[in-house]
Amino acid sequence: MRPAKDFFRPLAVGAPDPVHEVPARPSRAIHFFDPSNEKMASKIPDMVGPGSGAPDVLLGNLEDAVKADNKEAARAGLVRIAQATDFGPTQLWTRINALDSPWVLDDLTTLVTEIGDKLDVIMVPKVQGAEDIHYVDRLLAQLEAKAGLERPILVHAILETARGVANIEEICGASPRMQGLSLGPADLAADRRMKTTRVGGGHPGYLVRQDPDPQQPDKQRQTYQQDLWHYTIARMVDACAMHGVYPYYGPFGDIADETACEDQFRNAFLLGCVGTWSLHPKQIAIANRVFSPSVEDIRHARRVVAAMGDGTGAVMLDGKMEDDASLKQCLVMVELAEQLAA
Ligand code: GLV
Ligand code: MG
Phi and psi dihedrals of 225, rounded to 5? Predict the structure, then answer.
């Protein structure tokens, strides 16, 4: 088993790889902005960290939600913003257009050439299999070499087709550039022909009803809403953990419903995700809170680490058994807290 400390850092496979030497940086909130929207773009310099309200990542979105007529303006806007802004500790990501779109070649060529030294991660939508990552990987290698870039740009795939879900392990392992995976619930729902009309979140019709009570036949039976995304997120977390890349929730479109948003984000955090997308400034604070371990969890994890001494055997703490395995869970928590505090 991999030491817990390595979970937050992509693992090198085989020979040491410069991509995997990049130290892990927090990415709890990936805040999307449309660089063709001047009002939105003008706020970007003020959103750069450090600061507890800042997102860990600012992402210039070029794909869906940007009108076809604005694709070029969005690309040019992102170049302008990146060149004019000192991002400090905040990462700069972009979401390029889909690989079968007329815009993607210009997206990659322009962005790597003009702002490749500032771009940390390129998010690739609608990834279907390893071949999509290989294509982007090769193109990036050529463009980076031409631009004389020394730091490789990492790649993040959005899981938003049924084929992508079926090929999830090979996608995660397709390149040492792979940084992570996000759930794309809107496109994935459409591709699967799910009967929903939402961007992420639950559905009031997706229920399990309590069995009838023979003693009380007329009693109203309880119903419990189930999580539509549980299977996909769990599958994504396993594939990411296996390959040492990071899993993320994705978009939650009901901006007004902060409670449901927080619930979805927390489920994803508990299942192993390290962050999520933010589509509105309100969601940054929710993501920063949810994807940071609580003070109580950190305190408890540190007590277990201290009590476990050399890390083997079993101890009783507050009436509960702790052993080598619970210690490993606590180390995940402690190391995440240290990474966020660094
Ligand atoms: C995101 O891109 C989604 O389709 O949900
Ligand atoms: Mg999508």
Answer: -75, 135
Q: Among 64, 95, 127, 249, which residue has the most ligand 1 atoms within 8 Å of its CB, making it the best to mutate?
A: 64
The rounded Cα 118 to chain-centroid distance in angstroms is: 20
Q: Is the complex ipTM higher than 0.95?
A: yes
Q: Is the CB of 98 under 6 A from ligand 1?
A: no
Degrees, nearest 5: CA angle 18-23-24: 125
At 215 the pLDDT is 80
Model confidence pLDDT, tens digit, residues 199-214: 999 999 999 998 888 8
**The token pair that represents 66 in the structure block:** 């940007």
Residue 250 near ligand 1, beta carbon < 6 Å: yes
Whether residue 127 is predicted with pLDDT greater than 60 in this model: the reply is yes
Q: Is the CB of 176 under 6 A from ligand 1?
A: no
| 185 close to ligand 1 (CB < 6 Angstrom) | yes
State the average pLDDT for the chain: 92
